[in-house]
Amino acid sequence: MDNLLSEGLNLMVFGMGFVVVFLTLLVFATTGMSKVVGKFFPEAPAQPAAKKAAPAAAANNNDELVAVMTAAVHKYRS
User: Is residue 55 part of a domain?
Assistant: First the structure.
């Protein structure tokens, strides 16, 4: 029984060690690839978004939209 427990613990330690080493290498590889891609394909500077004016037609449709939504809620609850 002692031998079986020892083999189980040994397998667990090697398995978890392999996973930790693999994930560490994966982090370094991902960081390295990110730096290489950033060097060859730099990001363009961000441009501020232009403010969009609300269309006048949308203001007129708000009353109709409220009426439709109110009717739908009333129909759902009844």
Answer: no
